[in-house]
């Protein structure tokens, strides 16, 4: 099971806090993956397709329990992609038109309502239910062990814009991207993803996301330490190589016999211990010398080899 499917399964098992929550969630499910058709008798029929079994179960449960609607359920398998999908059909029946009005799908005498009805998201628990439905019908979340990315994909721009307003109201930052005739609202920030998951009620998923973030933080800290150590080692190696090259020039162009005892000690120690740091070399001097003193000896050697060219 994919990480997205795990989240949808968790959301589908939540018990509603208030009776209105079922209506808000079902409205969102239908708005994303439902198709409404007119029948010859002036009524309506509804077809809802989903690739997620838990979503299909939720739709049927709400249709039966909340609106007493009759449904037919057809499992299907795509021959091209070899994946299972599900079709829920709600034929024209006496209660359907009123149900569509309560769901904010249809405005009697005016037609379809593409956005979010204010009456369905008036309270925070209704907002959570509506967002659950949107995610269950058209949501995607990457496995947080690999990436922090969450999407809500819907079919019309007005619904997408209303969702952006709702998320902003919840202090969740999201962006809208038009993609192949659909509208994808996406979140990339860990904090925003966690807030949305918790608000929708996906506590188990939010905890998994928190754990993934902690693990990433530990790995990043280890990588930073290792990279810093490697960089320091690389710089030390390059510095030692440059110092050895300088000592060899001093030997060939100036001669050790023309050096002071301190400079001669430095040259001999550097040749014997090419990988040692200046601090380590200073410990070998007689008397011992600080890192600063060793650096000044380097400067003096550089002045000696540069003197003839001045």
What does it look like?
This protein has 310 residues and is an alpha+beta fold. The chain is 55% helix and 15% strand. The chain contains eleven helices and ten strands. It has helices at residues 3-12, 19-33, 53-67, 96-102, 124-138, 157-169, 190-200, 203-254, 261-272, 278-282, 291-306, and strands at residues 34-38, 44-50, 72-77, 84-90, 106-107, 111-112, 139-141, 150-154, 175-179, 182-187. The strands form three sheets. A four-stranded antiparallel beta sheet has the order 1-2-4-3. A four-stranded antiparallel beta sheet has the order 7-8-10-9. Strands 5-6 form a two-stranded antiparallel ribbon. β5 and β6 form a beta hairpin. α2 (19-33) crosses α3 (53-67), α7 runs antiparallel to α8 (203-254) and α8 packs across α11. The longest helix is centred in the C-terminal third of the chain and has 52 residues, at 203-254. The termini are far apart. The mean pLDDT is 86.
Which key phrases capture this entry?
alpha+beta; 55% helix; 310 residues; 4-stranded antiparallel β-sheet; single chain; 10 strands
Topology:
Elements: H1 3-12, H2 19-33, E1 34-38, E2 44-50, H3 53-67, E3 72-77, E4 84-90, H4 96-102, E5 106-107, E6 111-112, H5 124-138, E7 139-141, E8 150-154, H6 157-169, E9 175-179, E10 182-187, H7 190-200, H8 203-254, H9 261-272, H10 278-282, H11 291-306
Antiparallel strand pairs: 1-2, 2-4, 3-4, 5-6, 7-8, 8-10, 9-10
Helix pairs in contact: 2-3, 2-5, 7-8, 8-11
């Amino acid at each position: 099971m994919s990480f997205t499917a795990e989240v949808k399964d968790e959301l589908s098992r939540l018990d509603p806090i208030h009776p209105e929550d079922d209506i808000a969630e079902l409205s969102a499910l239908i708005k994303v993956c439902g198709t409404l058709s007119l029948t010859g008798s002036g009524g309506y029929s509804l077809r809802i397709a989903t690739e997620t079994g838990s979503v299909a179960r939720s739709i049927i449960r709400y249709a039966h329990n909340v609106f007493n609607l009759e449904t037919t359920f057809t499992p299907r398998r795509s021959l091209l992609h070899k994946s299972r999908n599900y079709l829920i059909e709600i034929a024209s029946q006496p209660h359907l038109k009123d149900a569509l009005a309560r769901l904010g799908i249809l405005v009697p005498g005016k037609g379809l309502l593409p956005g979010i009805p204010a009456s369905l998201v008036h309270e925070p628990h209704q907002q959570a239910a509506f967002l659950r439905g949107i995610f269950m019908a058209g949501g995607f979340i990457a496995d947080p062990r690999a990436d922090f990315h969450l999407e809500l994909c819907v079919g019309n721009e007005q619904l997408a814009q209303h969702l952006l307003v709702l998320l902003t109201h919840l202090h969740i930052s999201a962006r809208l991207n038009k993609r192949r005739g659909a509208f994808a609202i996406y979140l990339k920030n860990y904090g925003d993803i966690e807030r949305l998951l918790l608000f929708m009620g996906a506590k188990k998923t939010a905890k998994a996301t928190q754990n993934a973030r902690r693990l990433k933080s530990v790995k990043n800290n280890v990588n930073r330490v290792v990279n810093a150590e490697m960089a320091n080692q690389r710089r030390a190696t390059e510095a030692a190589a440059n110092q050895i090259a300088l000592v060899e020039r001093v030997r060939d162009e100036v001669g050790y016999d023309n050096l002071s005892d301190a400079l001669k000690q430095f040259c001999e120690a550097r040749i014997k211990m090419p990988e040692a740091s200046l601090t380590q070399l200073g410990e070998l001097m007689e008397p011992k010398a600080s890192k600063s003193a060793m650096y000044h000896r380097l400067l003096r050697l550089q002045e000696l080899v540069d003197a003839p060219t001045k």
